[in-house]
Write a structure and sequence with these properties.
about 190 residues; alpha+beta; NADH Oxidase; 4-stranded antiparallel beta sheet; 6 helices; binds flavin mononucleotide
Amino acid sequence: MSSGSSQSGLHPAIEKILSRSSTKKFADTPVTRAQLELLLTAAVRAPDHGLLAPWRFTVLEGDSRTLLGDAMAAALREKSPDADRELLDREASKAMRSPTLVVVSAVSQAHPKVPEIEQWVAVGAAIQNLWIAAESLGLGVAWKTGSHAYNSSVKKTLGLAPNECIIGFIHLGTPVTKGPLRTADIESRTRWL
Ligand SMILES: Cc1cc2nc3c(=O)[nH]c(=O)nc-3n(C[C@H](O)[C@H](O)[C@H](O)COP(=O)(O)O)c2cc1C
């Protein structure tokens, strides 16, 4: 085994990437401030064409998660006026599925060399960095979007600018249950020229 390798013989960083899966259920234990700062630092080390730092992070913990939960329930009520209390409560509870939630958004700008899509992709890369760093700390992660990510009232409640796009609601916490590992199909998706 080479130095820095784990029992599988793979480098621990590669092993983390290969074993990543979404967390389905989180324990209540909050993510610490030091952990969050490390994760955000990992996020902003992502590749960034033009060094535009298009990412923005909004951290919700404890009671502040209800801000988002209430906004999501209100968005549902607007879309489906017949939704009953049980449905609305279930919608609001989605913000509480993990003790810590980082809303990752993108602010893109007109740039002569960096098209908007590259700025969004950089934010996706930042989320992936954050994810792998979180799993390396023993934390679980879930990346959600859904219609609320594109809802202007939800964005306003979070204090986001009208031109800011939510790229992910990133749930973080101690994992209780995780999803299965997906098959890694490179064959049908790769052309070897
Ligand atoms: C941009 C983006 C948006 C996503 N939005 C959702 C979502 O709204 N709900 C959800 O359950 N998962 C969402 N996911 C997570 C994927 O569904 C998840 O990664 C996929 O089911 C594979 O599971 P795994 O992460 O365990 O491999 C999203 C992932 C990405 C990259």
